[in-house]
């Protein structure tokens, strides 16, 4: 029998158990495709006595210190499925330095420390693979790295976080409040350990940083990425969006604009006719536009043990196949150049505004003038009493605009916020 590929698994939670269950169910199939078996030789967990729905593979030893896996002579590939920053960082660094391949699902770590870790992997000539880090089971990393390698990528637009999409879908389809929908998402187990990462757009931002590297071969610092979450979106915004024929989605987007990289995570209004607008529940989807291929769309489960385990296993199998040098970022440079970033205030898109104002003469005219003075052209206006309101003298005025630059939006908002008849912080979203 050919020598097995020996894995050291750091973490045996949702994803670790998902991977183990696929390895158990499909051992023959995997061996046939790879030409040798895949064997888990060691598993690191915090609490070895914890009952787990999927058992630790039979012959694997259980260790308390994941760093042992980096030094273990019987481990060929270290698989990091713990999450978090510090221990995972130490483990991956040590494993790469020891000349071992690493597979990880840890988007947070790669968004923060990818530059350093990819450089170390390149220096050591080993693989640092991360398909599961972006949209769980959807093979978007491989698609950008290999399948679309000959394309100049014009745009990548995606629903990158299942929890926030689930919340927005429940608010839209079942009329739940934001808080009720979040509670349901947590119960279903999609949310990160800290759900603020999901609802504040941070998890989507981590994934987008990885996608920018793959699409443009440039390192975009997480700190330079504009990020807005979904916490300020109300059922009223969703209802108004629907009046305009749109759905509200948390969108991560990067595109090439005049040779510069634009990237952001924001809730956006999408025409209901777009495929992305029809992605509901905890599902993820990514739309890539290449100059040669045109638009390509991937859709599937962005979270869950077996779906994410499927992506982890694909990386393990890719690294276990002999003969080719590891391809970590899709580009040959050891260190990617810094991104040439489109200044945030030059970014332009159509906008949705909801202003909470006193219902009295001159209010609409003053708002229209403030927008006009900032060079923003109005497309449509709606004013309707909020059915849930206690006070009918305060009304929402909802405005959709033509394309507006961020700097002009900020100027208009500064003027409008100062009007005495404006009774709450204006809500605004981009329209895709
Ligand atoms: P999880 O269910 O919380 O499991 C984490 C595992 O790591 C547990 O087995 C835990 O041990 C172990 N662990 C944590 N810190 C440790 C330490 N210091 N020493 C030893 N073991 C340690 O997490 P998960 O949902 O599987 O996520 C794992 C990674 O995959 C994260 O980076 C996450 O962002 C990413 N990811 C998850 C999904 C998903 O659907 N869940 C999808 C895509 C990517 P105990 O079991 O003893 O506590
Ligand atoms: N919390 C993440 C999500 C899990 O909701 O999409 C997968 O990364």
Description:
The longest helix has 18 residues, at 107-124. The protein has helices at 14-25, 27-34, 68-71, 86-97, 107-124, 140-147, 162-173, 178-188, 196-199, 202-216, 235-243, 305-320, 363-373, 406-417; strands spanning 5-10, 38-44, 61-63, 77-80, 101-104, 128-129, 153-159, 246-257, 260-271, 283-290, 294-301, 348-358, 378-383, 394-401, 404-405, 427-431. 35% of the residues lie in helices and 24% in strands. The protein folds into 3 domains: 5-137 and 306-322, Rossmann fold, CATH 3.40.50.720; 140-301, Dihydrodipicolinate Reductase, domain 2 (2-Layer Sandwich), CATH 3.30.360.10; 345-431, Alpha-Beta Plaits. It is elongated and about 85 Å long. Strand 4, helix 4 (86-97) and strand 5 (101-104) form a beta-alpha-beta unit. It is an alpha/beta fold and 432 residues long. The N and C termini lie far apart (54 Å). It has 14 helices and 16 strands. The strands form 2 sheets. Strands 7, 8, 9, 10, 11, 12, 13, 14, 15 and 16 form a 10-stranded mixed sheet that branches. Strands 3-2-1-4-5-6 form a 6-stranded parallel sheet, with helices on both faces. The structure holds NADP nicotinamide-adenine-dinucleotide phosphate and L-homoserine.
């Amino acid at each position: 029998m050919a020598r097995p590929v020996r894995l050291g698994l750091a973490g045996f939670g949702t994803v670790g158990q998902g991977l183990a269950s696929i390895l158990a169910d499909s051992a023959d199939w995997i061996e046939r495709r790879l030409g040798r078996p895949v064997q888990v030789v060691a598993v690191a967990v915090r609490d070895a006595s914890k009952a787990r729905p999927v058992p630790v593979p039979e012959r694997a030893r259980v260790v308390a210190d994941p760093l042992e896996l980096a030094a273990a002579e019987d481990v060929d590939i270290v698989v990091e499925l713990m999450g978090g920053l510090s221990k995972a960082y130490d483990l991956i660094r040590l494993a790469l330095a020891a000349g071992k391949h690493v597979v990880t699902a840890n988007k947070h770590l790669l968004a923060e420390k990818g530059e350093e870790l990819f450089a170390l992997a390149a220096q050591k000539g080993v693989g640092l693979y991360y398909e599961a880090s972006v949209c769980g089971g959807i093979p978007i990393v491989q698609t950008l790295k290999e399948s679309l390698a000959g394309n100049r990528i014009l745009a990548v637009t995606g629903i990158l976080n299942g929890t926030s999409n689930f919340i927005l879908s429940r608010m839209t389809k079942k009329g739940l409040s934001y808080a009720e929908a979040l509670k349901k998402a947590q119960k279903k187990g999609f949310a990160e350990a800290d759900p603020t990462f999901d609802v504040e757009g941070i998890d989507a931002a981590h994934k987008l940083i990885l996608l920018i590297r793959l699409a443009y071969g440039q390192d975009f610092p997480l700190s330079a990425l504009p990020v807005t979450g979904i916490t300020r979106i109300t059922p009223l915004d969703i209802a108004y969006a629907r009046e305009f024929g749109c759905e509200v989605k948390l969108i991560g987007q990067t595109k090439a604009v005049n040779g510069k990289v634009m990237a952001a995570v924001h809730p956006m209004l999408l025409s209901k006719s777009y495929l992305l607008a029809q992605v509901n529940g905890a599902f993820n989807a990514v739309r890539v536009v290449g100059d040669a291929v045109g638009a390509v769309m991937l859709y599937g489960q962005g979270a869950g043990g077996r779906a994410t385990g499927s992506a982890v296993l694909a990386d393990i199998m890719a690294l276990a196949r002999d003969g080719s040098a590891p391809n970590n970022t899709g580009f040959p440079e050891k260190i990617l150049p810094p991104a040439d970033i489109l200044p945030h205030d030059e970014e332009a898109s159509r906008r949705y505004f909801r202003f909470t104002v006193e219902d009295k003469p001159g209010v609409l005219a003053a708002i229209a003038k403030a927008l006009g003075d900032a060079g923003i052209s109005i497309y449509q206006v709606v004013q309707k009493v909020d059915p849930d309101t206690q006070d009918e003298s305060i009304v929402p005025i909802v405005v959709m605009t033509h394309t507006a630059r961020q700097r002009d939006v900020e100027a208009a908002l500064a003027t409008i916020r100062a009007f005495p008849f404006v009774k709450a912080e204006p809500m605004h979203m981009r329209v895709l």
